[in-house]
From TrEMBL, chain A:
<dbReference type="InterPro" id="IPR050625">
    <property type="entry name" value="ParA/MinD_ATPase"/>
</dbReference>
<dbReference type="Pfam" id="PF01656">
    <property type="entry name" value="CbiA"/>
</dbReference>
<feature type="domain" description="CobQ/CobB/MinD/ParA nucleotide binding">
    <location>
        <begin position="5"/>
        <end position="225"/>
    </location>
</feature>
<dbReference type="GO" id="GO:0005524">
    <property type="term" value="F:ATP binding"/>
</dbReference>
<dbReference type="InterPro" id="IPR002586">
    <property type="entry name" value="CobQ/CobB/MinD/ParA_Nub-bd_dom"/>
</dbReference>
<comment type="similarity">
    <text>Belongs to the ParA family. MinD subfamily.</text>
</comment>
<keyword id="KW-0717">Septation</keyword>
<dbReference type="GO" id="GO:0000917">
    <property type="term" value="P:division septum assembly"/>
</dbReference>
<dbReference type="GO" id="GO:0009898">
    <property type="term" value="C:cytoplasmic side of plasma membrane"/>
</dbReference>
From TrEMBL, chain B:
<dbReference type="InterPro" id="IPR005527">
    <property type="entry name" value="MinE"/>
</dbReference>
<keyword id="KW-0132">Cell division</keyword>
<dbReference type="Pfam" id="PF03776">
    <property type="entry name" value="MinE"/>
</dbReference>
<dbReference type="GO" id="GO:0032955">
    <property type="term" value="P:regulation of division septum assembly"/>
</dbReference>
<dbReference type="GO" id="GO:0051301">
    <property type="term" value="P:cell division"/>
</dbReference>
<dbReference type="InterPro" id="IPR036707">
    <property type="entry name" value="MinE_sf"/>
</dbReference>
<keyword id="KW-0131">Cell cycle</keyword>
<comment type="similarity">
    <text>Belongs to the MinE family.</text>
</comment>
<protein>
    <recommendedName>
        <fullName>Cell division topological specificity factor</fullName>
    </recommendedName>
</protein>
């Protein structure tokens, strides 16, 4: 049974697209078939982060409006053949997405893939609403910083009220993916700790992605960090998160490029 | 001086945590996230507001959860009659 996952945050620039690409690639590396869908209509970037920007012919809006079918629009990753991308369009018209159209596309994708990962645009407008609408599970990407935590809280409120699952009276599972985390600064008391953010948002924990130059290097190259440098700290953190999504119990650590010291020091158990 | 400041330096994360907890308790009430603290804040306020004039800005509701017990801290500033009179006079 296909699982629909939304990667969302409210605030922009916290790592939604990076995380969508990295989690999608990591899940696909475990042998699952994965489709990552860019819902950021008008400002598509998932194609660029995944290195497929020159292969975009048709996009989500073309499929929603019936101008192209999924086979024409889906871009299969050249590195992992179980990973596909459905890009957003560059058109400025956000009204081009319709509720019926999005539902039809998601249902069709569910028939073809194990995982559908919807990369939400920032904000709480139409695009974000459509991205979360059909989700079974939400990954809340948050930086340990006040404005990001506040916006995540708003998004959690919307996930609990505006999604199909919420409207059916079911509880949407929401998991925190804490990105750009620096255990040294947190320990020094100058950055919110993992537990602070978890307590404030009252959700489970999917993973802690350490601040690392490897993330920028990977996006420079157009490769999910889990593929660009699989042994780097953020790649290992994303790979662990992907395995947790598959139901495995993996000890929660903050991987470090500096010989695993913090990984041991900050070992904790996943809430998920 | 800088050495002294180094040792007495207050960390900033607890401030972030406290500010967020206060803000989100309020925002959840406004935006409708069903949350115990927000719900309590609304209902406690409604009861008190029936009898005394209170400034919603000067209300703090804080829920601290520990392993075995939780404490609910309600801090409400109420204008004294004297201050009210002063304000009226002003």
């Amino acid at each position: 049974m296909a699982e629909v996952l939304v990667v969302t945050s409210g605030k922009g620039g916290v790592g939604k697209t990076t995380s969508t690409a990295a989690l999608g690639a990591a899940l696909a590396q475990t042998g699952q078939s994965v489709c990552v869908v860019d819902f950021d209509v008008g400002l598509r970037n998932l194609d660029l982060v995944m290195g497929a920007e020159r292969r975009v012919v048709y996009d989500l809006i073309n499929v929603v409006q019936g101008d192209a079918n999924l086979n024409q629009a889906l871009i299969r990753d050249k590195r992992i053949d179980t990973l596909s991308l459905l890009p957003a369009s560059q058109t400025r018209d956000k009204d081009a997405l319709t509720a019926e159209g999005v539902e039809r596309v998601i249902n069709e994708l569910k028939g073809r893939f194990d995982w559908i990962i919807c990369d939400s645009p920032a904000g709480i407008e139409r695009g974000a609403y459509f991205a979360m609408r059909h989700a079974d599970l939400a990954v809340i990407v948050t930086n340990p910083e006040v404005s990001s935590v506040r916006d995540s809280d708003r998004i959690i409120g919307l996930l609990d009220s505006k999604t199909e699952k919420a409207e059916r009276g079911e509880t949407m599972e929401k998991l925190l993916l804490l990105t750009r985390y620096d255990p040294v600064r947190a320990e020094r008391g100058d950055m919110l700790k993992v537990d602070d953010v978890l307590e404030i948002l009252s959700i489970g924990l999917l993973g802690i992605i350490p601040e690392s130059p490897e993330v920028l290097k990977a996006s420079n190259l157009g490769s999910p960090v889990t593929l660009a440098n699989p042994i780097s700290a953020p790649a290992r953190a994303y790979a662990d998160a992907a395995r947790r999504l598959r139901g495995e119990t993996i000890q929660m650590t903050v991987p470090s490029d500096r010989k695993g010291f913090f990984g041991n020091l900050f070992g904790r158990r996943a809430a998920a | 001086m800088s050495v002294l400041r180094f040792f007495t330096r207050r960390s900033s994360a607890p401030a972030a945590r406290e500010r967020l907890q206060l803000l989100l308790a309020h925002e959840r009430a406004v935006f409708g996230r069903t949350d115990l603290v927000a719900l309590l804040q609304d209902e406690i306020l409604a009861v008190i507001a029936k009898h005394v004039a209170i400034d919603p800005e000067k209300v703090r509701v804080k829920l601290d959860r520990q392993d075995t017990l939780a404490t609910l801290e309600v801090d409400i500033e109420i204008r004294t009659p004297a201050a009210g009179a002063l304000k009226l006079a002003g």
